[in-house]
UniProtKB/TrEMBL annotation:
This is RNA polymerase sigma factor. Residues 113-164 form the RNA polymerase sigma factor 70 region 4 type domain. Transmembrane segments: none annotated. Signal peptide: none annotated. PROSITE patterns: SIGMA70_ECF (PS01063). It comes from Maritimibacter dapengensis. The lineage of its organism: Bacteria, Pseudomonadati, Pseudomonadota, Alphaproteobacteria, Rhodobacterales.
Length: 172
């Protein structure tokens, strides 16, 4: 996403599109759109991602969260425009209010604690966790990218998560 945002990288956009388009289509269909309309929504969403890439801020949201939010908003707009009853899942989301300042502050503090805990991990464990959870890569994808055995990757992730659980037990 950063290559798209910073360099208007068409190859990176193609990879992003190939990854998210089928997932978005399923997401939109599950939320009540017919297949044809879901394809149109996915096209609109991905076009918006390309056009509005300069607005993406990795400090505020993961790429997937940002893209799915664009899809939700587009689907809500279409439903409202057509005057159809809104599915309950989308209706509840559309009616949600902005979080109050206390919630925002608490989330920011928890994010800082998590970032600090990640920084204290063994670098190999942190790298694997970031690739798996922040980079949304499968264990096989990580193995292919790093050349490490799958068992090593799984062990590093498991050990890193155990350490994070221990470090973050007071957040609960």
């Amino acid at each position: 996403m950063l290559a798209i945002r910073d360099n208007r990288d068409k190859r990176a956009f193609g990879l992003l599109f190939d990854h998210f388009a089928p997932r978005l289509k399923g997401f939109v269909i599950r939320a009540g759109a017919p297949a044809g309309q879901a394809e149109d929504i996915v096209q609109d969403v991905m076009l918006s991602v390309w056009r509005k890439a300069h607005l993406y801020d990795p400090e505020r949201a993961q790429v997937s969260s940002w893209i799915y939010q664009v899809a939700r908003n587009r689907q809500i707009d279409i439903i409202r425009k057509e005057g159809r009853p809104m599915p309950e899942a989308l209706k509840a989301e559309a009616e949600e209010t902005e979080p109050d300042a206390g919630q925002v502050l608490a989330l920011e503090q928890e994010t800082d604690v998590l970032r600090d805990a990640l920084d204290r991990l063994n670098p190999d464990q942190r790298d694997m966790i970031e690739k798996a959870y922040l980079g949304e890569l499968t264990h096989s994808d990580i193995a292919e990218a790093t050349g490490l055995p799958l068992g090593t990757i799984k062990s590093r992730i498991r050990l890193g998560l155990e350490r994070l659980r221990h470090e973050l037990k007071d957040l609960r």
